[in-house]
Amino acid sequence: MAAEYTFLIVIFILLVIVFSSFVSVKQGTIVVITVFGKYRRILTPGLNFKLPFIENIYSKISIQNRSVELEFQAVTFDQANVYFKAMLLYSVLDQQEETIKNVAFKFVDERNLMQALIRTVEGSIRAFVATKRQSEVLILRREITEHVKEQLDVILEGWGYHLQDLQLNDITFDDVVMKSMSQVVASNNLKAAAENEGQALLITKTKAAEAEGNAIKISAEAERQASQLRGQGVALFREEVAKGMSVAAKEMKEANMDTSVILFTMWTESIKHFAENSKGNVIFLDGSTDAMQQTMKQMMALNQMNATASKGK
User: Fold this and answer.
1) Distance between CA atoms of 45 and 47, rounded to whole angstroms?
2) Which helix (H) or strand (E) holds 26?
């Protein structure tokens, strides 16, 4: 009976030894093996074998990307406080044995690594910002990032890490500074709006003046043409009247009739025209026989002058 118990115990111990000899390593992880506290080798992802009770697992190192958020303050050259919020993305440099040894043994633990990493980033940014003025910080976001990357890459390689990315998500100043900056922006916007409004008003006034000038030119040209046409119409009318009177006088002479009848008819037609088109205006005419004879004499004298002038030509 004792022999059976001894056999079972031996079998159990052998099974424990066998199962403890195999180690399963997750994907994206490297295991560091030590022997009596001294570095021995590394185990890659998958199923691995180790000597039981002799080889020990010192640490498990993730080779995946890791991120950390930072919040810190810096002071510019003109003594303005700047507050940064940043995101740092980093990872193990590679899977080579020397790199893994640096990652495993450079720092006591993860907390000390993070403390050194954060302080290094803060110191690099503060040193850069201290040489710049407040007005320059907001437009130097890319320059700050590149400056930090150049310095951190060398330092992190010595620790076995590589800086993947650094993002400055937020850059702010004290409330008083932010308020003054907002006022500057608002005043610049008002200035730009006033300039644009002035330009628009100038363009509107200029176009209106040009349109008014063109309208005056067009109106003057139309009035000139109308006056010219009216003058031509009056001249043509007088010419036709003269031709008509000449023909009528010639026919009256051929009929042995007094040409004064033509003048009398024209005088009566004129009175009729005045009456029809006066539109309520009052026209005073001397309707006596003497006035009519005097008018006839004047018209005959005018007709005689025209006839004399025609013969002279």
Assistant:
1) 7
2) none
Buried b (16+ CB within 10 A) or exposed e, 155-185: ebeebbbbbeebebeebebeeeeeeeeeeee
Helical (H) or strand (E) element with 91:
strand 81-92
> For residues 223 and 225, what is the distance between their CA atoms, to the nearest angstrom?
5
Backbone angles phi, psi at 158, to 5 degrees: -65, -25
Token representation of residue 161: 């890490």
Kindly report, residue by residue over 175-213, the tens digit of the pLDDT: 776 676 667 667 777 777 778 887 888 888 888 888 888
User: Over pLDDT 70: what percentage of the chain?
Assistant: 71
Contact 176, 81 (CB under 8 A): no
Two structure tokens written together for 166:
């650094």
Q: How many CB atoms lie within 10 A of CB 300?
A: 16
Q: Tell me the Cα Rg of the chain.
A: 58
| 39, 105 contact by CB (below 8 A) | yes
Tell me the C-alpha distance between 73 and 133, whole Å: 15
Write out the two tokens for 300.
Answer: 């005959």
Residue 103 has pLDDT above 70, yes or no: yes
CATH architecture of 66-173: 2-Layer Sandwich (3.30)
Kindly report the pTM of this predicted structure: 0.52
SS3 183: helix
